[in-house]
Amino acid sequence: MSEMEVEEYRQRREITVEGRDVPKPVKSFADVGFPDYVLQEVSKAGFVEPTAIQAQGWPMALKGRDLIGIAETGSGKTLAYLLPAIVHVNAQPILAPGDGPIVLVLAPTRELAVQIQQEAAKFGASSRIKNTCIYGGVPKGPQVRDLQKGVEIVIATPGRLIDMLDSHHTNLRRVTYLVLDEADRMLDMGFEPQIRKIVSQIRPDRQTLYWSATWPKEVEQLARQFLYNPYKVIIGSADLKANHAIRQHVDIVSESQKYNKLVKLLEDIMDGSRILIFMDTKKGCDQITRQLRMDGWPALSIHGDKSQAERDWVLSEFKAGKSPIMTATDVAAR
After folding, report:
1. Distance between CA atoms of 28 and 32, rounded to whole angstroms?
2. Residue burial 271-308, b: 16+ Cβ < 10 Å; e: rest
3. Whole-angstrom Cα distance, residue 277 to residue 284?
4. SS3 293
5. Where is the Helicase C-terminal domain (predicted)?
6. Which long-range contacts (CB under 8 A, 24 or more apart) does 117-120 make?
7. What is the rounded CA–CA span in Å between residue 261 and residue 259?
8. How far apart are CA 154 and CA 152, in angstroms?
9. What is the DSSP letter of 187?
10. Cα(142)–Cα(282) distance, rounded to whole angstroms?
11. DSSP 256
12. Rounded CA gap, 49 and 293, in Å?
């Protein structure tokens, strides 16, 4: 692409870039320069063209430089850092016994970590890259066994990873590719001390990719301390918080009218779609779910008082469409 074409492309896809020697975006997967084993997985997944964050983020990440990516949820950012991570792993010496991971991805919640792992497993399959997911609320045994066998990619929530490091079940000496996903969310949840402790154990010449949906001061300050001479790519506005493609409709009704309004909405939109109903309280979740089920609606609830096994089961029923209505507190926000 010529400079004029690059400018037009970035403008059309709402891409803003900062940094020295910023590489041009790519229009197709073939233009990226990914090895065949990555392109095969992309082709298998049926993708037609890169999303905006992938089109600009891949050339940046493949340069080996630090990267700040600001993009809304649902923008394709997971693959924007995972595919370069797979290329990075395959360029490193193989793991020796006792080695920790080469790639570390930190995520704020167990739910997001599991989603990332599913993508890592799918796209790393052809090059036999091993991964594991480290999070709390479940027995440590299987996670410890994975770490002891040796895995190239670890996806983790900060608290459980520190537990594993303190127990000497793994180490971060081999980490040369670090990803902080949803950094703003991690700071909101109070994980800054844990993040600092983890990053302090990683070699300073690592490549760091720092992802956020918003760009408040505290997120920017942390980035300045962790990243060196980074590229920065913003998709849309740095103030965004949610996907602009989502249509929002607000109805203000009295407490006594809420349930009848909900049922009317369900009757209007229940066409095979999955419906997520957020509630303020766990008690409210259970009450509404009971009422819906009594009225014949296929509803389940998910919240922090449920065991990890129950939450996994509810999510799988919801995803499969067996129970297409789910009531939730913010435990399911991701």
Report:
1. 7
2. eeeebebebeebebbbebbeebeeeebbbbbbbeebee
3. 11
4. helix
5. 261-334
6. 117/155, 119/78, 119/79, 119/82, 120/82, 120/85, 120/153, 120/155
7. 5
8. 7
9. H
10. 30
11. G
12. 42
Q: Are 175 and 100 in contact (CB under 8 A)?
A: yes
> What's the predicted TM-score (pTM) here?
0.74
Q: How many residues does the chain have?
A: 334
Average pLDDT for residues 94-100, to the nearest whole number?
92
| Closest to 226 (Cα-Cα) out of 207, 213, 253, 245 | 207
What one-letter code names the amino acid at 75?
S
**Angle CA(317)–CA(112)–CA(148) in degrees, nearest 5?**
105
Q: How far apart are the first and last CA of the chain?
A: 37
290, amino acid identity: R
Q: Which residue has the tokens 């070699």?
A: 203
For residues 226 and 68, the answer to whether their CB atoms sit within 8 Å is no
Locate 257 and state its tokens.
């009218």
DSSP annotation of 237 = -
| 110, amino acid identity | R
Asked whether the beta carbons of 306 and 282 are under 8 A apart, the reply is no
In the chain, the DSSP E strands lie at 15-18, 67-70, 103-106, 131-134, 153-156, 177-180, 207-212, 231-235, 275-278, 299-302, 325-328
Please check the confidence at residue 304 and state whether its pLDDT lies above 80: no
What are the pLDDT digits (tens) for 116-143? 999 999 888 878 889 999 998 888 899 9
Q: What are 217-248's pLDDT values in tens digits?
A: 888 888 888 899 899 999 886 554 555 556 77
Dihedral sign of CA atoms 130, 135, 141, 147 in order:
positive
Domains of the chain by range and CATH? 3-235 (3.40.50.300), 255-332 (3.40.50.300)
